[in-house]
Amino acid sequence: MATKHEQILRYIESVPVGTHISVRGIARKLAVSEGTAYRAIKEAELRGLVSAMDRIGTVRIERKRKANIERLTFAEVVNIVEGTVLGGRDGLHKTLQKFIIGAMQLDAIVRYIEPGSLMIVGNREQVQRLSLEHGAAVLITGGFEASPEVQRLADERALPLISCAYDTFTTASLINRAIYDRLIKKDILFVEDIVTRAPLAVLTRDKTVRDYFLLVEETGHSRIPVVDAHGRPVGIVTARDVADAKPDDPIEQHMSRHVVTASLKTTVASAAHRMVWEGVELLPVVENRKLIGVISRQDVMRALQMMSRQPQVAETLRDQVLQGFSEVRNEDRSFSLIGEVTPQMTNNLGTLAIGPLTTLMEACAILCLQRSRSIEMVVENFTLYFLKPVSVDSKIEVRARTLNSGRRFAKVEVEVFDGSDQAAKALVTVQTWER
């Protein structure tokens, strides 16, 4: 039987896109407490089923597919620009296809307006009306209001009419930044992208060791999750756990009760770190505390290898820091990154900031290990000694040398040189595993 939490989520998923969702309304409709309704609505927001907006409330939206994650809804635009909705509230769930800046003559603007687009304009009422008539939503910059006629047209067409206090350039930059962040997020692999959902090999508490061996023989997996009557993981059984057990022993007597799990929104990199740290080969994936799938270490490694070969759609801050640095392999088998400190890498005093410095040192340490062995890795510990400031426009060398490298761990010494002066030094410890 589904819990109240699950019933609320199913109800939210069943209502039409654009429906307003409220804690009080859900509590009254499904006869649950407001606390239960609130927690379920927050879960629905994490799943991308609803969007919460200041002064508007929570609205049912269409769940974005991974391929279209760079698209924004007009409801999200309202939050991004800290705007006020003047009209067309029924269209807030719609997806923004593109945005246009209304800085042209009327006859030229018409050529660019398309249904689903967003016209960013000031207090030019003719442009506002023309955009709505051609199926585009309108975002009025500068804090201006709209006439009653324009508001009525927005309500009739169910096209959002939004006002914000920012100027046109700032508004366009905020929306463009949000889309850019979505592009970066699209490149990040999550557990939901690689999880194996069905059929799942699981045992219940009432099963025996004999059932475990039959399941191992049938599936080829030696690490089996144990679930309760509600499908929630309560333990893990491995071949080592039952090595000395009798065939008729209850599986509950031998299972490990320390269950390491991941959610669908856990990043693959985080899952990999957890698997290495805990020394597990299989990681159960849960949603609402129920087991819905598993990922293996092989799944994680294949995913990370695939992503390492893909071209990046959008640059992260790490990419920008490393952009101007060239890789050099030294004769003493150390590895160096050589480049110039740009203004973007400095703090308010004009010297190299801690963030870019540690990014460079970490990247150099990982590259040093990867050039000597084909391994995947995650940084476990980073101990930094900052010796002297490095000013903007300085040409620096970041040099990494492997101190020792084993099957599970490696240690790398990293030094930063500003000319002949040593500016910083670090000891980096990473967890490794063979591809």
From TrEMBL:
SUPFAM superfamilies: CBS-domain pair (SSF54631), HprK N-terminal domain-like (SSF75138), Thioesterase/thiol ester dehydrase-isomerase (SSF54637)
Gene3D superfamilies named in the record: CBS-domain (3.10.580.10), Hotdog Thioesterase (3.10.129.10), HprK N-terminal domain-like (3.40.1390.20)
Origin: domain of life: Bacteria
Protein keywords: CBS domain
Domain CBS, residue spans: 195-253, 255-315
Protein name as it appears in the record: Thioesterase
Organism per entry: Alicyclobacillus cellulosilyticus
